[in-house]
Amino acid sequence: MFITLNEIIKWMIIFLLIEVLIVSIGSLFEINLQKERKPLESDLYSSSQLQEEFDKLISTYSSSQLKEGVNKLISTYNPSNSSMKEKKNPFRLVTLKNDTDVIVLSSQKVEPICYTNTVSLSKLTIQRKKETFINMMIPSILLAKHKMKMERKKVLRLSKKDNLSVEEAFWLQQKRVDFQVETDDELYKRMELHPTSLIIAQAIVESGWGTSKFFQKANNVFGIWSFDKQDQRISASETRGKKRIYLKKYSSIHQSIYDYLLTIGHVSQYKSFREKRLETQDPFTLVKYLNKYSERGDEYVADIKNIIKSNKLTKYDGYSLKL
């Protein structure tokens, strides 16, 4: 049977999309290991809806455009592409050997440092532990927020563009799947950010000031679960019924925080929080809408609010990356 070039290119693109979607859909089921946390649910696109989207994208372009798009997509996802890695990673990688390697924040302009591991803070005094944890977390939070901010700007730019290239169209479609939306407008809204003070307060609660097993061994700040055997992951000490629980293992703290931002952006339980952060960036107003983040409800909200106040975390809302 004779297969045309268009057919070959079409199936190459579909295979690439499937690989992208496997990664994207895996993120839809990320939930926290805390005992009080309810499993999070999120509606998925049906296979027919996804196929319809693929066909729409593919039918838009000529065979030459598709061929060029495939080549660019392959280049984008090629790990050996050093220029692409350099463009995506405007930061300095730092591997910690002990707590003294953590760089102290000296001003509101923060050096873009990506810590690839954590260190034990258990032997430090309470005050020293708090300072070191915050110094370790702030650069990673700002890096994750910067990445989301740049992607949000890209969404806005592409949504206003009349003719998208193949790779632009597929990138935009991947983001729609990541955030479980159908329109670019809704995607843009879901990628809104929230205050650093609120993120670090939740990181403090979820990791116990950096003392949790999943933080120390997997860079997993928020106890995100893994349901995919292909994930880098570690086994949790607890089980749910007869099922063993696994937690994601991240290559850096920054990657863990970006995953948290993605989770906040697409899970249905956080809809009211997302809507409110479009109106205000006041952490004490927003925290009230995180009552569904934990089964503890209002007690969890009170804990977060108290941590922000007692540790004067709002001052970090004015911090930014030195880029």
**CATH class bucket:** Mainly Alpha
Give the C-alpha Rg.
21 Å
Report the average pLDDT across residues.
80
Seen as an oligomer or otherwise, the chain set is single chain
Q: What is the fold-level CATH name, i.e. the topology?
A: Lysozyme
- The computed structural class is mainly alpha
Report the CATH architecture. Orthogonal Bundle
How many domains? The number is 1
Shape: globular
| End-to-end gap | 55 Å
Structural summary, described in words:
The structure is a single chain. With 323 residues, the protein is mainly alpha-helical. It has a single domain, classed as Lysozyme. The chain is 51% helix and 8% strand. It has 13 helices and seven strands. Strands 4-6-5 form a three-stranded antiparallel sheet. Helix 5 (126-159) packs antiparallel against helix 7 (184-190). The chain starts with a helix and ends with a strand.
Structure described in brief:
The protein is mostly helical. Helices cover 51% and strands 8% of the residues. It has one domain (5-321): Lysozyme (Orthogonal Bundle).
Please render the helix and strand layout as text.
Blueprint: H1 5-26, H2 47-59, H3 63-76, H4 82-88, E1 92-94, E2 109-110, E3 113-115, H5 126-159, H6 166-178, H7 184-190, H8 196-207, H9 213-218, E4 225-226, E5 233-240, E6 243-248, H10 253-266, H11 271-277, H12 283-286, H13 298-310, E7 320-321
Parallel strand pairs: 1-3, 2-7
Antiparallel strand pairs: 4-6, 5-6
